[in-house]
């Protein structure tokens, strides 16, 4: 009976030791997972900040592109206006020149 009790005590102590060992192993795994989670959270924050910076740069580039397109359109419109004015001036000059050419000339040789 005594040896049976001692054997039972020995088995219980072995089971406790095994449970303590497993608990220690679980704590180590939990610590490793928590460290990895913290690292991933920091990485996520870094990526979020990088994404925000990239989005801001894209927005700025789009705004600049729109400004450049508006300026280009203004230049095209101004160029078209200038070309139109040049054509009108050329036509006016030709008409005026023709009108001058068609005016009766006074003959400086007074032939009578």
From TrEMBL:
The Cep57 centrosome localisation domain, residue ranges: 1-81
GO cellular component, one term: centrosome
Matches recorded under Pfam families: Cep57_CLD
Top-level taxon of the source organism: Eukaryota
Gene Ontology MF terms: gamma-tubulin binding; identical protein binding; microtubule binding
PANTHER family associated with the record: CENTROSOMAL PROTEIN CEP57L1 (PTHR19336:SF10), UNCHARACTERIZED DUF1167 (PTHR19336)
Name assigned to this protein: Cep57 centrosome localisation domain-containing protein
Origin species: Strix occidentalis caurina
């Amino acid at each position: 009976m005594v040896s049976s009790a001692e054997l039972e005590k020995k088995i219980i102590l072995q089971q406790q030791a095994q449970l303590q060992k497993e608990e220690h192993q679980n704590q180590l795994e939990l610590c490793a997972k928590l460290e990895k989670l913290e690292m991933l959270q920091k990485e996520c924050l870094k990526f979020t900040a990088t994404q925000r910076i990239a989005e801001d740069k894209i927005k700025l580039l789009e705004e600049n592109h729109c400004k450049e397109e508006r300026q280009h359109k203004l230049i095209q419109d101004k160029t078209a206006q200038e070309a139109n004015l040049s054509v009108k001036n050329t036509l006016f000059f030709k008409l005026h020149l023709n009108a001058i050419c068609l005016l009766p000339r006074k003959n400086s040789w007074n032939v009578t």
